[in-house]
Fold:
Amino acid sequence: MKFTWKKAAALAAMAALTVSFAGCGGGDKKADDKKAAKGNDKELVMYMGIVEQAAKVVASEFEKDTGIKVKFVRMSGGETLSRIRAEKNNPQASLWYGGSADSFIMAKKEGLLEAYKSPNAEKIKAEFKDPEGFWTGIYQGYLGFILDKRWFEEHKAQPPKSWDDLLKPEFKGQIVMGNPGSASTGYVLVSATVQRLGEEKGLDYLAKLDKQVKQYTKAGAAPARSAALGECAIGITYLHNGIRLMKEGNKNVALSLPEEGTAYELGAVAMIKNAPQKEAAKKFIDWCLTKKAQEIGQKNNSYQFLTNPEANPPKEALAFKDAKLLKYDFQWSGDNRARLLEAWNKAVKK
Structure:
């Protein structure tokens, strides 16, 4: 079953209204404000877009280093954006960690984030952060193809080496990708295609690709698991999701990058506007930009490239460090997110 981005966003918003955290929202506002103020250095509620295992370790290590306990919900970028929108008048979390910068840019545009320029952000390249301090990049993930080698051997088919290859007849019904409305991974593909080909040709390509897609998943990492399980031949997602599955022992998994160039996500961190635990959120931003914190992921199933120039990238990803990258405009992508999603939705319905 294929889901539209509107349905995904609506589901996320509905979920937001039914979820509450201990110590946040509801009750007497003055009492809640006092409680939040007292808890600023004791607890931090946040939304995380990284894999569950890495998220747990990040939370644990931050608590060890600062004494601040983290409570988190793991969601994809589109889901998190919808959740923060729904909670705009009564924020239930103070921090957003992980997920592509496109969604953060949209959140900034809608007045959902609060600026904070961490002193540790000074060493991060200008292209990896918002100039006003509304978000800062923490990692890069390259978009590519996660393959089930068994399918290609059985069908004596050549693995895709370009975006156009995905339109070959033999791949019809054999492709899984993230829903652009709920998964920032899916939206990066939409935006990158339009930036690469122009809007008219880009949307035409995406409409053709839609005919090849077996399923749009809610989470951007899910297509890699579908390929590993033999549910599809090709999963379109970030290469680090495929690397993780290979490290877990899935010998049938192979990776491929499009020859004409690929897009990349810039995972980011930001403080949510009117954060109930503002000081704790600032401390987390300071902490997650350090060399030590950025290197945690590679020891816990997370294999992205890093933004802190002093941090060592995971050795498993070094084979792709010279990958051809498209000139991806995050600002344009974020500014045009709602419009592009609507245009994509119309294109695939034709």
Observations:
- The radius of gyration is 20 Å.
- The first helix runs from residue 5 to 18.
